[in-house]
Design a protein that fits this description.
The protein has two domains: about 5-130 and about 320-334, NAD(P)-binding Rossmann-like Domain (Rossmann fold); about 130-315, Dihydrodipicolinate Reductase, domain 2 (2-Layer Sandwich). Helices cover about 30% and strands about 25% of the residues. The protein contains eight helices and 14 strands. The chain has helices at about 15-25, 75-90, 130-145, 165-180, 210-225, 255-265, 285, 320-334; strands at about 5-10, 30-40, 45-50, 50-60, 70, 90-95, 125, 150-155, 195-200, 230-235, 245-250, 270, 295-300, 305-315. Helix 1 packs across helix 8 (about 320-334) and helix 3 (about 130-145) packs across helix 5. The model has no long low-confidence stretch (mean pLDDT about 95).
């Protein structure tokens, strides 16, 4: 049975922060108290939670007294600055930024895949990148049953991955484009309305951007498969929320399309959605606001033996961020 715990949300006014509030209420998380933390400019605002209006407090190093769990989603620099203070105060930090993910002393957790890693924490548990979570949710049960020689993934990532301001900017730029008006963008560096482009995270010397490197390294860490052969191409598309991914898997053991569907049937957090007769497969609109990662269009790759394609869609803000963090917190609360 879960015990009632004192929770703080760091970055409560952002897209993931407000989603955390919704999910805590929906899942009836066993709260003893809830503290909302954000920057000084947001202090004094009120956010709705279960019929109440909770005040937002300024985040300081003294914000964590009496707090059991901190759900952190205010950016890597903020986590780097304040997470140690939270741990020092006795809290466990579930960090939704990239800052701690590849730290060998910090567990990187998807509860449906490696919940046992939570017990190894030393005060901080990292939430994986949203694209990594959406990728691994259907890949893990297939990898577990058939093994995996190589994975190739192309992502189609929504504005939600860059935060609420990017979502707002996409809407505003689209209106301006339709009205024939100029638009000065501040978040996304390229024309975004009616356009797409390779992911705008920093480029590395080997030609991969940081988002693609994250998917590779995080997947290996979560699966405990250092030698996993995986390559990614990440693309930003003009969709508000929910990322899509085209996944190509070369398996170790012989398998069929039917066996892959069977391996995914009934898997917690994964839902098969398709209507082959109508050529209807999961779309971002289907996944938006939903907890499950949607899978469809599993087919045999005709170019290579024992290789299969999957089409996957998942809500970046929910399972890709806030829901995964709350699921970790639920395990901590037990």
């Amino acid at each position: 049975m879960s015990r009632n715990v004192h929770v703080a949300i760091m970055g409560a006014t952002g897209a993931v922060g407000t989603e955390l509030l919704e999910i805590l209420a929906e899942r009836r998380f066993p709260l003893a108290s809830l503290k909302l933390l954000a920057s000084a400019k947001s202090a004094g605002k009120r956010l709705p939670f279960k019929g109440e209006q909770l005040p937002v407090e300024e985040l300081t190093h003294d914000s964590f007294k009496g707090v059991d769990i901190v759900l952190a989603s205010a950016g890597g620099k903020i986590s780097a600055t304040y997470a140690p203070s939270a741990v020092k105060a006795g809290a466990v930090v579930v960090d939704n930024t990239s800052h701690y993910r590849m730290d060998p002393t910090v567990p990187l957790v998807v509860p449906e895949i490696n919940p046992q890693a939570i017990a190894k924490h030393k005060g901080i548990i990292a939430n994986p990148n949203c694209s990594t979570i959406i990728f691994l949710m259907p890949v893990f049960p297939i990898w577990k049953k058939f093994g995996l020689k190589r994975a190739v993934v192309s992502t189609y990532q929504a504005a939600s991955g860059a935060g609420q301001t990017a979502m707002n900017e996409l809407c505003d730029e689209t209106r301006a484009h339709l009205d024939g008006k100029p638009f000065a963008r501040t978040v996304i560096p390229h024309p975004y309305a009616f356009n797409l482009f390779p992911h705008n995270s920093p480029m590395t010397d080997n030609g991969y951007c940081e988002e693609e490197i994250k998917m590779t390294k995080e997947s290996r860490k979560i699966l405990g498969a250092d030698g996993l052969r995986i390559t990614a191409m990440c693309v930003r598309v003009p969709v508000l929320r929910a990322h899509s991914e085209s996944i190509n898997l070369e398996l170790e053991k012989k398998a069929s399309v039917e066996e892959l569907y069977a391996a995914l049937k009934g898997v917690p957090g994964v839902q098969i959605m398709e209507d082959r007769a109508k050529n209807r497969w999961p779309m971002p609109l289907d996944a938006s606001g939903k907890d499950d990662v949607l899978v469809g269009r599993i087919r045999k790759d005709l170019s290579q033996e024992n290789t299969f394609d999957l089409w996957v869609v998942g809500d970046q803000i929910r399972k890709g961020a806030a829901l995964n963090a709350v699921q970790i917190a639920e395990i901590l609360a037990k």
